[in-house]
Amino acid sequence: TRYRLGGESPRAFDCSGLVQYVMRALDFNLPRTAREQAKVGMPIPADTAQLRAGDLLLFGKKGKVTHIGIYVGDGRFVHASTGAHRVVERPLLRKPARGIVPWIGARRLIAMPDDSTLAATTNPVASQR
Q1: Which of 67, 69, 87, 126 is catalytic?
Q2: Quick check: pTM over 0.90?
Q3: Please, are residues 67 and 79 in contact by the beta-carbon 8 Å criterion?
């Protein structure tokens, strides 16, 4: 699928449109923008050992989220890439380079029984249909 700013369908996606589309298919309603999506669910540290498939990955600088993707496991994630002009799967940990926005954290929409070690209280998750 190709990249288009504001895209939210399989014809074209931007990063948050892709995340919203995939999560809607799993019966989770998310806000539209990456910045708003970054507030949903339980915060997960930027530690690959803590990640699970389906976690939302947050990218940005100085605590400001400017990009979002979905962790798929094995150190990889999917996102709508402005550089590649399409939806791609990439390794999460890459060498810093021009055009690569740093990974700054993650959010988990589906709490697991052992998540109590990550947060003392559970934040509200995305509203389900």
Answers
A1: 67
A2: no
A3: yes
H-helix or E-strand containing 24?
helix 15-25
Q: Residue holding tokens 């369908």?
A: 9
Residue 85 annotated as catalytic: no
Instruction: Write out pLDDT tens, residues 5-44.
Output: 999 999 999 999 999 999 999 999 999 999 999 999 999 9
Return the beta strands (E) in 62-102 as ranges: 64-73, 76-81, 86-91
Tell me the per-residue pLDDT of 100-111, one tens digit each, with 9 for 90 and over. 889 999 999 987
Q: Which of 79, 81, 87, 109 is catalytic?
A: 79
Among 128, 125, 34, smallest CA distance to 79 is for: 34
